[in-house]
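Students often ask what a 'structure token' actually looks like in practice. Rather than answer in the abstract, let us consider AbrB family transcriptional regulator, a protein of 146 residues. Its sequence is given first.
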Amino acid sequence: MSQPKRGIIEPLAKFHAQVYRNGRIAVPKNERDYYGLDQHDIVELIVRKYEGDKIIGRGWFLAQLTVRGVLTIPLGLRRELSISDGDFVEVLLIGFIRIEDVIGDHGLRIMKALRSNEYKLISEEDEKRLLSMLSKGIYHISYFGE
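Now compare that with the structural description of the same chain:
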């Protein structure tokens, strides 16, 4: 009986990125568009550090996308691999979670409000409504943008 042939396992995407201040890199727009990734989504990545044409280190991490697909390589990983601002790294996208699929539309609106440091001035009536929910045993985050 013959052994099954092992194929090359490919990542979802592979790209090169320049490391900016504080370890920030960006997932290219065409990759985000192709997979439908947006701000707040979580990506699973492998980052490779090269010296010449040789890989000298690699690491795995999860990161949350911010505006324009920006994410941060964890500080500890940057230190372990000696990744500095201005360096180029190879990035393998190996998985992702669309946050909206996990927390729903309501949760996504709350996350966007939280990230934007959104606040609302409220009326006395709004305050009474919010406090009345506590007296009814309703404990949830209210979002006035609904």
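One point worth highlighting: The first strand starts at residue 13 and ends at 18. Ask yourself how you might have guessed this from the sequence alone, and why that guess would often be unreliable.
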